[in-house]
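ok trying again, last paste got cut off:
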Amino acid sequence: MRIDEFYDKAYSWILDKGPSLLLGVGVLLIGFWLIKILAKWMNGHLFKKEVDPSLTPFLLSLTVVVLRILLIVSAMQIIGIQMTIFAALIGAIGVAAGLALSGTLQNFTSGILILLLKPFQAGDNILAQGQEGTVTAIKIFHTIVTTFDNRMVIIPNSKLSNEVIINTSGLGTRRLDIELKFNNSIDFETVRNTMAPIIENAADAARAYENRIGISSLEPDGYKVMINVWVDAHGFVDTKMKIQQKIMEALKGSGLKLPGLG
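nice, full thing came through this time. structure:
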C-alpha cells in the first residue's frame, strides 16, 4: 500500500469515526467526574442517615462499579464498537461465575441482610454454630467472633442468616440462676436472710427486674433453693463467679452447709 493511499484511508476514518470517538471520550471523562461527585454525596448522605459503618463502604463501591460499567458500555456504543460478541462473552462468564461462586453469593446476600436487619451488631455476645463469643466485625461474606478464651472464629454469613442465633447481650441484661440444695433441718428463712444481701449488693446486678430467692423443688432428703439475679449481659460469667464466691463465703460464715460440703 502506497503512503498516499494510507493517508487517504486514515483521513477518511478520522472524518467518519473522529466525531463519535471524541464524543465517546468526552462522555467517558464527564461521566467519571460525575460518578466521583455522586460517590462523595452518597458518603455524606449515608453518614447523616447513620447507616451501619460496615455497610457504607460496600454500598459506595457497588454503586461506583455498576455506574462505571454502564458508562463504559455507553461510551463504547457511542464510539461504534459492536457489543454483540462482548455481551455474549459477558453472559457466558456471568453464568460460569454464578455456578462457581454460588456459595459465595449466598454469603454475600446473607451479609447484606445481617447489616440491614441487624439481628446482632459488632460488640454483641452471640451463641451460633456451637461458638460463643463477642462479635468483633461483620464483613460482607463472613462474621468474625472472638470467643471468651480469645479464639478468633470466622463464620460464613449464610450460616448466621439461615440458622438459629442466640444474642445473649442484645437486651442488655440476663438472669443468672443459681440452685442450691439444703437439708430439711435447715430453715428456709435462714437461707433467704443469708442470701438476700448478697444478690442485692452485687456490684454488677441490674435493677430493671426483681431478684428472687425461692424453693424450686422438694425432695425426701432436703429441698432446693433457686436464686435469680438480674445482671448485666456483658461480663455475665465474671459476675456469676463473683456472686457464687460470695454465696460460698456467706454459707461458711453463717454455719449453713450444703450436703457433702464440709
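cool. The mean pLDDT is 79. Helices lie at 3-48, 56-79, 84-100, 102-117, 157-162, 188-200, 236-254.
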